[in-house]
Amino acid sequence: MPVFKDHKININHLLGFIPEALIAHLSAATKVDHYTKVLHGKKMFYLLMYGILENDRLSQRTLEDSFNDPVFKVLFNLDEGETVRRSSISDRLSKMEPDYFRQLYECIYDQFSELYSSAEKEKYNLIRVDSSMVSETVGKLLEGIDNKSGKKAVKYSIAFDGMLPCHSDVFTAAGYASEDIALPEAIMGHVKKDDGHRNIYVMDRGLQSTRAMKAFNDQKVTFIARAKENRKFVELESFIGANQDLDLGESTLVKDCKIQLYTGLTIHNKRGNKHSREVLSEGHFRLVIVESKAGTGKTFWFLTNDFECSAKEIAHAYRRRWDIEIFFRFLKTGIECKPLGFLKQEPHTAHAIHDFNHGHDDSDVQKGQQHRLQNRETKILNGGKGPGYCHDRGPLRRKSRPVFQDIKNGRNFFRP
Hints:
The protein has 416 residues and is α+β, with helices and mostly antiparallel strands. The protein has helices spanning 2-5, 11-15, 20-30, 41-54, 60-67, 70-75, 86-95, 98-113, 118-121, 179-193, 210-218, 311-319, 322-334, 362-381, and strands spanning 126-137, 145-146, 151-160, 165-171, 200-203, 222-227, 233-238, 251-268, 274-280, 285-292, 299-304, 389-390, 394-395, 401-406, 411-415. The longest helix has 20 residues, at 362-381.
């Protein structure tokens, strides 16, 4: 990749950080090599890593070329006569246990974290949490979030510490279309892995649930979230002093106070009907409102349960949340990881193979059989020529078929 080739690092440097003993141990623990003769877990991991570093656009065909490249075989001590086809790579990826890649990544991440002292780790205790949706046609997904447009979606929720993703979750159930459900689950999943943490989790306006924020309070999870400007609350105490400087640099402090939030309470009446009533939620939060100096008069509302940081630090922490947006863009355009669609029922890990997994099911087999029969009939009618031939103009060029649509950037990606 051009992004990587500009840096003074090569594949051998990366391999120095990944012990072979670790890969062998995880291969045995996850049984990823069960009934596999050629494409073992270690080879697939090396192939994906080498393919990302050496190819401008990653696909199953480029992975096939990379595996059959003599340079790849020399680097990883493979037999020169060993070859694979794209269909074998596709079938192997569709059947591999994703947890193998997840555990491998987490072990490497833990080793990387141990290189930092406690003081250095505090620089990375601001965890940005966000989600990205990937849509595909209904016929290519066994399960997914139905958006009523002929497509299903898979949601990837990722926690990012500013350098590397430290946690990820993949959601396909309809309820997780709401960030009020997906983001708290992703955050609590990371909290369980990091005992005794001092992390601050920062989110955008996707999280608005008062119940979720109260749960963070109860479990002592510090968060900063951007709130909607019409949020209903009761002010309990103001933290702005008489002579306090309201200049925060790029913004001006408008309000800094302790509040109580309203939440909906479900009521069952005597007739058995349900309705919601607004009540004050238990627990106190902090509301920080700042106004941009850009001249637009736009205000930003921040909700947090952190009463120790200054208003300027809270506003700056939210600005750093943008790092995860850059990370998502890096995944989609920097290393050209484009999902090709998948039919495997199990959720795919967001760290390694979700961008390449493409399996098949019984309906695909039936479609393939029907397609072959149609080709045979067309060949007979064309006097021995295949379906890509026209008597008047000769062979016809086969058009590419779109297999993934980036709904955020409005682009289609094609498989040749």
